[in-house]
Structure formats: C-alpha cells, structure tokens
Specification:
Keywords: Transferase. It contains 6 helices and 7 strands. With 204 residues, the chain is of the alpha+beta class. The chain has one domain: Gcn5-related N-acetyltransferase (GNAT) (Aminopeptidase, 3-Layer(aba) Sandwich). It is globular and about 45 Å long.
C-alpha cells in the first residue's frame, strides 16, 4: 500500500503520543500537555498514513520560532536561519518500509523553499546507531555535540550529535521569488505559520 503524508488532525494526538512514547531511546517521551503545545506551535506537523493507520509523524520549526528545546537553542546560537526537525517517529511494525524516508522527503520539499538548511539531532547512546546512518544517508553531517539535561532519566545528561544539511534549492528560490512564493496550491502549507516574522527567507 502507498504512504500518504498529510497534516495531523487534532483528534489523532492520542495516537501520535502513543507512537512517540513507544519509539525507544532515539526520541524523548512526551505527555499530553507537551504534545498539545507542539501541536499549537509547530510550523510543520505531519503524519504518514499507511493502510488507514498512522505509521509515523514528524514535527518541525523554523529558526525564529518560540520553541523551548535546548537543542533548538544550540542551533539558533550558531546559525541564523534553518528549519529544525524537533522529532520524528515511525511505528515499530513499519520500520524499514519507507515511512521515515517518505516523511523526510516531504519535510525537505517544504523546507528547501523557505530555509537554507535543515537541522536535527541524534542521541549518542546504545540503540541509536541506525538513526545516525539514516540521517547520514540523507546528507546530514555532524556540526557539533550537545549535552542536554533530561529529567527522570538514570543519566540526566544525554549527549546528542548535532546535524545539519544544506538545502541546495533554497538560493535559487530566494533569488527568483524574493520574499513571496507563488500562490500555487501545492506551495501553500495548510498549517498556519505561527513563528515570528523572519528577518530573511521566504514565507508561503
């Protein structure tokens, strides 16, 4: 069956929460209140649907968002403009079936029209080597490491590899269209952009 990528619906947040908290050490657990906060503020929050069920999701923010992640802050201290992948998860029964790649292809098609690069992190702990390999195969490269404090973990400081990927289409889009993309339906993202006005770059 094909994979459909679409915006999350509010009534699906419980399913997203369960998927997030079953994903293992590669992603931090959430509670319902935090997920609601992400739903209300994320620039990009999409799910992958396969066989009528949610098979994965991805949440992202532009560099000028009001987002309180310490990893996001690490990137913002060093880079003026980027799109940040806050978290991505794929249901265990769907791993290896192309769901993660479909989500990354979709988020890149969104981000490369609006931002010069994409950022994310991968935790450096047992069980996350596959995540480093996955991101490396997509062109992400390590630009540093960051230790973040995590409550309710045996080891409170979790070290992450901080990864960046240049988005090669962005300079041409910026030079060609300036501050406004054409009004084509496929270019308009259905989620409202709640981030602050950007000093540079494009907005749909």
């Amino acid at each position: 069956m094909s994979i459909a990528i679409r915006d999350v619906r509010e009534h699906e947040l419980d399913s997203v929460l369960a998927l997030n908290n079953a994903a293992g050490p590669a992603i931090l657990p959430l509670d319902a209140a935090r997920l609601r906060q992400l739903y209300d503020s994320a620039e990009y929050f999409r799910v992958a649907e396969r066989d009528g069920a949610i098979a994965g999701f991805l949440i992202g923010f532009g560099a000028h968002a009001e987002h309180d992640s310490s990893n996001f802050a690490w990137f913002r201290e060093r880079y003026p403009d980027f799109f940040y992948i806050d978290r991505v998860a794929v249901a265990s029964r769907r791993r290896g079936g192309g769901v993660g790649r479909a989500l990354y292809a979709d988020v890149q098609s969104y981000a490369e029209l609006r931002y010069p690069q994409m950022a994310c992190e991968v935790f450096l702990q047992p069980g996350t080597d596959h995540a480093l390999l996955f991101h490396g195969s997509f062109g992400f490269r390590e630009v540093g490491q960051h230790a973040m404090h995590v409550e309710n973990r045996a080891e409170h400081d979790v070290r992450a590899a901080m990864l960046m990927k240049p988005l090669c289409s962005y300079p041409w889009v910026r030079d060609t269209y300036g501050d406004a993309l054409p009004g084509e339906p496929w270019l308009l993202h259905p989620r409202p952009v709640r981030t602050a006005n950007r000093a540079t770059g494009l907005r749909a």
